[in-house]
Design goal:
296 residues; 62% helix
Length: 296
């Protein structure tokens, strides 16, 4: 009938919106078991308005699910918006210190390479690496515990570390010792070697790369700030976006409430025979005379 065709058309409208990429449609769920039961019950009811009411409730349920999906999406966007704000605050706070540290990085490319081990300065990568590894071996062979500076490059210390393993053994490594503000943004304080037998040139190259990467950090931090600002700008107009079908939902709820109220009122209204009996009862109560055709 017309009501069922209306329900099918409404359902098809939601499907078309989803397939067309409507951002407000986050899910397409079929009617719930409760709605299906209500419709099945309505089809067996004597009052044809019961079918119409079941249809209104089903459409209301669909719209309410879409509303919940809309609100969940808005909450997620709010979290992303706030997270981007924290990213901006953190990076802006740390940027001046990182810029200051990056400013002391020297150009180590080509024949500009320079590094120190103790009081000796080296301009050859292999020689510097070999001197670092020799110092590493001395400390390792003596089972030195804790941290100790063994070399320097472009103002950054290369440190030895020795300690016990969980099983009670002994382990060591050497690493570039970066300031905390730099370590919090990158892994440039990573290990350079875990054995004195490492390749000397490789140690020198890894150290130089770690130092040179510090010079790139300010630009990377600026990029993070820019990207976070762009994200916030994109999300901001959507944070308070209204539910597209809010008026439709309100109308369906009111229509269903009004129809249900009419149906309840009709159920409480006496039939013709019941009204006739009420009149006879009232006449008998007033006069004390029982009507000849009384049903009492």
């Amino acid at each position: 009938d017309a009501v069922m065709w209306q329900m099918l058309a409404s359902k098809q409208r939601f499907i078309d919106q989803a397939l067309s990429g409507d951002s407000s449609v986050r899910s397409i769920d079929d009617l719930s078991e409760a709605s299906q039961f209500q419709q099945a019950t309505a089809m067996t009811a004597d009052d044809p308005r019961a079918i119409q009411l079941a249809g209104l409730r089903a459409e209301t349920e669909k719209l309410q699910r879409l509303y919940r999906a809309h609100e969940e999406q808005r909450a997620k966007m709010r979290q992303d918006y706030d997270r981007a704000g924290r990213t901006i605050d953190l990076n802006q706070k740390m940027l001046p210190d990182v810029q200051k540290i990056a400013g002391k990085v020297q150009d180590l490319s080509g024949d500009k390479f320079a590094g120190k081990v103790g009081n000796a300065t080296y301009t050859d990568r292999k020689e510097w690496g070999a001197a670092v590894l020799a110092k590493y071996k001395d400390l390792s062979d003596s089972l030195r515990m804790g941290t100790e500076k063994i070399a320097e490059m472009s103002g950054f210390d290369v440190v030895f570390w020795g300690g016990k393993t969980p099983a009670g053994g002994y382990e060591t490594h050497i690493a570039v010792d970066m300031p905390e503000s730099v370590r919090s943004f990158s892994a440039q304080g990573s290990i350079l070697a875990e054995s004195p037998a490492a390749d000397a040139v490789g140690v020198a190259m890894r150290t130089a790369n770690a130092v040179m990467n510090v010079a790139r950090l300010p630009a990377q931090i600026q990029q993070r700030i820019t990207e976070a600002n762009d994200k916030r700008n994109a999300l901001e107009p959507r944070l308070n976006a209204p539910f597209q079908f809010s008026e439709m939902l309100a109308d369906k709820i009111k229509e269903a409430q009004d129809l249900e109220a009419d149906m309840l009122a009709a159920q409480n209204k006496p039939t013709g025979l019941e009204r006739e009996q009420q009149l006879e009862d009232e006449w008998q109560k007033k006069t004390g005379i029982t009507p000849l055709l009384s049903r009492g």
